[in-house]
Amino acid sequence: MKIKALSFAVLSSIMLAACGGSNSDDSSNNTTGNGQTGGNTSVSNGQWTSYDFYTNQKDGYFIDKEVLTLKDGKAYSKETSTDPSYHSYKGLTVTIDGLYDEVNAPLDTELGHYSGTVQASNTQWTLNPYSSIGSKGLQYTTKYTTLNLSGKNLLEAISPSAYYAITQNLTDKFPVQHDLLDLYTTISKVKFPEGSSCLQLKEFSNTQEYLDLDADLNNKEQQNTLAQSWLSLKNDKTATLRNFKDTTAYLKADTFSNESYGYALYKNNYYSAFLTQKGVEFNMDESLKDYEDDLKNGTPEEKLRATYLLAAAKNVCHLYNEKAAQTIASTVKF
Predict the structure, then answer these.
(1) From which residue to which does the signal peptide run (predicted)?
(2) Through-space distance between the first and last CA atoms of the chain, rounded to whole angstroms
(3) N or C: lower Cβ tally within 10 Å for the chain?
């Protein structure tokens, strides 16, 4: 389940756009709303869909889609993409005393990978990620606001940053990706029907410090490189030794991001490793504070950028309900 990854991709894509853009456009997990529910979608039993539209400036645009199904207290994830090189990431996560290995989770032919057990309401999801050994200490909690999409323009939802730049005649300041213009033209002609809504991310947190492990175990050359990197950090006096469940990791702090990363040895295989502290990982309001300050006290340029970003962030969506997802799917033909 990409809930954790999407939590940050949604906002970071908007911030990249506000800083001048990147090769990939902002996620289509963006939408408009007035804070009211848009229908009677069941959260605890139902399907929610995320979309991501992006371009690599070489092969046109691509669409990634993930359908999250909540059924009888269990969560499933099914990913598809128009990108032939797309890789569905199912990794390993270790804590001091636990293993959470979605990569080894059972596969439902209809619903996708089993992600774990979940308790869900309109405002909060708590996921107990899958563990093949029955570990139970780690939980992810995501807090949401429900936004009403009924009657809203699809472009305003799919890409609020592009919608704002176009409607405010600011594409010179905040360029819209050329390869997505034709798609956006099509999307802008459609409105969401009654009953459409989405969930907007407000906060993401965890109950335990954890280490994400990433590697392609079938790639011998990569394993050799990771082994050399692990040994190099082992001999680096500025690196920190950390032991997790069946894992020996050497980590260094990134002074810019205040995060720790490095390399790990887990059951005779080597991995890139990324450490996450216990507690709140992301809070939307906290992330926007600097831009709200710029809006009040910044230079004219800073105020313009802050207005653009805050307008987009206000309308950003994380997950669409079934009615909204069906409308997007029929419009973009995917």
Answers:
(1) 1-17
(2) 20
(3) C
Which tens digit of pLDDT belongs to each residue from 307-325?
A: 999 999 998 898 999 999 9
pLDDT tens-digit series, residues 95-121: 999 999 999 999 999 999 999 999 999
Cβ atoms within 10 Å, residue 117: 16
Amino acid at 44: S
* Amino acid sitting at position 71: K
Q: Is the dihedral of CA 260, 266, 268, 269 positive or negative?
A: negative
List, as one string, the DSSP characters of 52-92: EEEE-SSS-EEEEEEEEEEETTEEEEEEEES-TT------E
Nearest to 163 by CA among 303, 7, 320, 17: 17
Phi-psi region of 285 (alpha: psi -120 to 50; beta: other; left: phi over 0): alpha
User: Using 50, 70 and 90 to split pLDDT, how confident is the model at 12?
Assistant: low
CA pair distance 149, 157, nearest whole angstrom: 8
Angle of the 300-314 helix axis to the 160-167 helix axis, nearest 10: 130
Amino acid sitting at position 116: G
Q: Which residues contact 230 (CB under 8 A, 6 or more apart)?
A: 250, 262, 263, 264, 265, 270
Ramachandran category for residue 47: left, alpha or beta (phi over 0 → left; psi -120 to 50 → alpha): beta
